[in-house]
Amino acid sequence: MLFVIDCVDKPEHLAIRLAHREAHLTYVRGFLDHLIAAGPFLSAEGTMTGSMLIMEFDTLSEAEAFCAADPYRLAHLFASTTIRRWAKVLPKEHPGNEPPPL
Question: How many domains does the structure of the chain reveal?
Fold first, then answer.
């Protein structure tokens, strides 16, 4: 199952984000086999204000456990975290781009 994890930073917490960024990235890299996409939300000025990850887990409980151990969460960076199931519809793979048969 795919899950979108939407995290909103607390106001005025950029220093907390930056202090824990490398630990967060190292943590997420440990889940590359579950990761579809990830990156920060940005303000109009380009300042990081949150995080969005699309992850694949077998259950919501696994997604929740992933979030619970994230160094950003442990540093109390987020004002909120929302985990929602998601279904990829587009883009579809283009005909002719399939791997050759074995």
Answer: 1
